[in-house]
Amino acid sequence: MLIKRIISAIVLIGIISGVIFFDWLCGLVVTLFIVAGLYEYFRMLEKKGIKIYKYFGISVGAIIPLSIVLRFEPTKNWELLFIVLALFFLIVMQFKRRDSSGVIVDISTTLFGILYVSWFFSFLIKIRYLENGLSFLAALLLITKLGDIGAYLVGSSLGKHPLVPRISPHKTIEGAFGGLIFSLLGALASKLFLNFDYAHLVFIGLSLGILGQLGDLSESLLKRDCAIKDSGKVFPGMGGVLDEIDSLLFAGPVFYFYLCAVVKGA
Question: How many folded domains does the chain comprise?
Answer without folding.
Answer: 1
